[in-house]
Amino acid sequence: MAEEITPPAATGAKEVAKPKLVATDAASHPWVMSLSAGVPGAVVASKTFAGQVTVTVAREKIADVARHLKQAEDFAYCVDVTAVDWKERAPRFDVVYHFYSFSKNDRIRVKCGAADGEDVPSIARVYLAANWCERETFDMFGIRFSGHPDLRRILTWEGFHGHPLRKDFPLEGIDTGAAIYPEEWPEGGGPGASDPNRKVVS
Amino acid sequence: MTDEKLSQAERDEAAYFAERAAAAGVGRPLSQGDTPPAPGEPPTLFDVQEMELNFGPQHPSTHGVLRIVLKVDGEKILEAIPDVGFLHRGTEKLFETETYPMGIPHTDRMDYVAAATNNHAFCLTIEKLLDVEVPRRAQLVRVILDELQRLSSHLVWLGTSGIDLGAVTPFWYAFREREQILDFFEEYCGARLTLNCMRIGGLPFDLTTGWVERLLEFVDDLPARIDDYEQLLTDNRIWKRRTVGIGVLTAAECVEYGLTGPLIRASGIEWDLRRAQPYECYDELDFAVPTRQNGDTYDRYIVRVQEMRQSVRILRQCLDRLEPGEIRGKVPRVIKPPAEEIYASIESPKGELGFYCVSNGSNRPYRMHCRPPSFINLQALPKMAKGHLISDLVALIGTIDIVLGEVDR
Fold first, then answer.
1. Mean predicted confidence (pLDDT) in B313-326
2. Omega of the bond leading into B57 within 30 degrees of 0 (cis)
3. Which positions 342-401 of B are in contact with A (Cβ < 8 Å)?
4. What residues of B are in contact with residue A4 (Cβ under 8 Å)?
5. Which 3 state secondary structure label does DSSP give B146?
6. Which of A70, A188, A127, A79 shows the shortest CA–CA distance to B373?
7. Is residue B238 part of a domain?
8. B320, B260, B323, B326: which is closest to B286 by C-alpha?
9. Whole-structure pTM value
């Protein structure tokens, strides 16, 4: 695949090299200033890359941050909620939110770190749109959202063992024989329990 | 039957149903034909009979494998709970294990009736991360492919949602034109559905000889064909009875649920990413963003048909501007973006289709997340379906225009 994308043949005159995109600190950005003033102690770090503002906030303050962005800064539309698994890092996960403002015609990215097993306050009561996104994040990463109205698995089934988008979940999948009927077969048991090559992840 | 003759069990049952109905906020007022019970009179068994019903996953109108758990009273929906995930293939996990260009074919399988726009969003994200400029000819051809894809996706929607509501004829006309669009795709890239028709930094192939002329011919023909569909449906009394006032969403609700695409435009918000945050060469093209005010199924139909007409306009302009030139930008042989994160989105036929990419500087994405419009739009179904009949639910699933490959990924 990679060799298909060949650079076009040189066209005589040499062009001036474009400056490389670098991330810059965004502490003086109006939204970040508004956030630090509106929710004291929330902003941990901020940066701008390719015109996109990223604010890292404290995990406990995320619902307040969302409320502030929605009410004071007019970010009315919650685009997306997802997470990133940094397996070796502490805290292990980044929960990533994208908000869009119709009046500003721009997006803001808000992140908060969460260790394995830590609860993140749900924003599903601030933005209805976050409901399924948080369910998906819970399903895929095992991050629990406290205060979520209906935190169930959404893409995999109830009783599935493991969270597929974690980095330690094998790509080829796991034997889910036991997980379909958890009441009959405990995790790690099931029809293929004696198979030495079977992968079991919880 | 007097109260004395009712057994205790029957009385308990009646009380149970009355309580459930009250909890669901539905009761007597829903059946408009009969007289409401006098105040103080306990409801009888015939008032509310709640039943749980599986709608799908193999129901033909769910356009794939969508299961909806319905709580119904007779034909009236008290609650609709979508159950998704039957088509989950772990696409986001696959992205992480393969190099950036190898991810493009996987995007075809997400929204499989609009593969070109998926390819486009994926490539655009990585181009933004690499800070690569796409040559002008590639931009124009990308817009042409996008708009053809929008037409074909809307035609599938028109045909299938019509057939769901008993209008069989538009289906044949819509699929006749769609077939021609698929022929254009086949001639361009060899595939009809899973196109894989874009590359990071440009396009895989140049257009074949005669493609543009044939497309112009087709585009000139198309407005008359769209008139044909409109003649069959727009003023059709049966179609209007089935769609007007069904699944009404206000503008505020649309924003709250994060809806995008034709749904938000049918509720009166003029928001289209092609206009709001233009990508490629949309900023120099002249087109309108059709909107309607009522936010019901009928208005969403009108908005989509109008969008098809606008797509024809865009196609004409692009074909006029097409000039020979490069089709690939300056992309390194091995794609290793800087260790950063980026979000980019485009207006797909269904709404905002975005990709969030986290790179760690290697040749494969550390995390690639897709923001699928169908998944988010489907969240509004319980709200839209409440209080309607089961047959209207079929109209509502059609009007959201979901593709389950994209919902479940």
1. 89
2. yes
3. 342-343, 345, 352, 354, 356, 358, 366-367, 369, 371, 375-376, 378-379
4. 101, 199, 204
5. helix
6. A79
7. yes
8. B320
9. 0.82
φ, ψ at B307 (rounded to 5°): -60, -35
Structure ipTM: 0.80
Residue B84 lies in a domain: no
What Rg value do the Cα atoms of chain B yield, rounded? 24
Domain annotation covers residue B50: no
Domain range enclosing B166: 91-407
Between B308 and B64, name the one with better pLDDT.
B308
Residues B78-94 have pLDDT tens digits of 888 998 888 888 899 98
> What CATH number does residue B244 fall under?
1.10.645.10
User: How many separate domains does chain B show?
Assistant: 1
CA distance B223 to B218: 10
B92 phi/psi in degrees, rounded to 5: -65, -35
Q: Where are the domains of chain A?
A: 20-146
The amino acid occupying position B313 is: R
For the domain A20-146, what is the CATH code?
3.30.460.80
- How far apart, in whole angstroms, are the C-alpha atoms of residue B318 and residue B310? 12
Question: Rounded CA gap, B79 and B95, in Å?
Answer: 36
Cis peptide, bond prior to residue B349, ω within 30 of zero: no
Sheet architecture: strand order including B341-348: B341-348, B351-358, B367-371
Give me the residue from B256, B343, B408 closest to A109, CB to CB: B343
Summarised one tens digit per residue, pLDDT across range A65-91 is 998 988 888 888 899 999 999 988 888
The answer to whether residue B306 is domain-embedded is yes
